[in-house]
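Handout, page 2. Input:
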Amino acid sequence: MNLISIPAFQDNYIWVLVEDDRRCIIVDPGESTPILQAIAENGWRPEAILLTHHHDDHVGGVPDLRTKFPHLVVYGPAETQDKGTTQVVEEGENVLILGWEFSVIATPGHTSGHICFYSKPYLFCGDTLFSGGCGRLFEGTPAQMYQSLQKISALPDDTVICCAHEYTLGNMKFSASILPDDRAIQDYYHKVKELRAKNQKTLPVILKKERQINLFLRTDDTDLIDKINQETKLQQPEQRFAWLRSKKDNFR
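Output:
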C-alpha cells in the first residue's frame, strides 16, 4: 500500500492509499478535479472514501466522485450524512477496506463529530492535529480537543500523521515565539522554513517527532508551564491547552 498526498485548494491535502493493483482509498476529497486527474493519470480504481468531518474543504468532491464511481462506499461521522456518506461510523468501530482494518477514533474539538481513521501505521486526522499545531475550535470545547489530542498522542511512536493542511510553517513560527530557547522547536522550524522555501511538503510526519515539537502535545512540559506561569497560574493541562489555543488564535 502506497501513501500519496494530492494538493487541493491553497493548502489542503487529499490523502490516497493505493494498493499494488491500483485499487485505492481516498481521504477527505475537498474537491474533485485534482483527485479525478490523479485517478486518470495513474489508472487508480477507487474503492472507498473516508471523511473525517463535515467542512466543505474535506467533503466537496464527494458528489462528483460518486457520480463517476457509483460503487464507492463513503465512510464518515454522523455530521457528514448530508455530504455523501453512505455508511456512518463512530468510535469503537472498525472498517475493513482492501484488507486494511481502520479503527474509528472520536476526536471532537474542531467540529463536534470529528473522527480520525487509524490503520497502523497511518492516522488520518483531518483537522484535529497538524504538524506543530492543532485545529481551531469551531464547535467543540478546549477540554474536548485536549482529550482528542491525548488519544492521538497515545498511539505508537511510529504512527504516520496524515494531516489535512500544510500549516506547519505558521505553527512552528508560533511555537518558536512561545519557547524561543527550545532547541527541538528551533531546529524543526529551521528545517520547515527550508522545505517551504523550496515549495516542498512537510507532511506526513511521525508522531514521535510531533511529541517533541508540538506544544499542543506538551501541556505537561515544565518549560511551557514556566512560560504560562509568567502570565497566569493554571493547574490543569486542559487549562494550559486553552491558554495555548487562545494565543495561537490571536497570533500573527
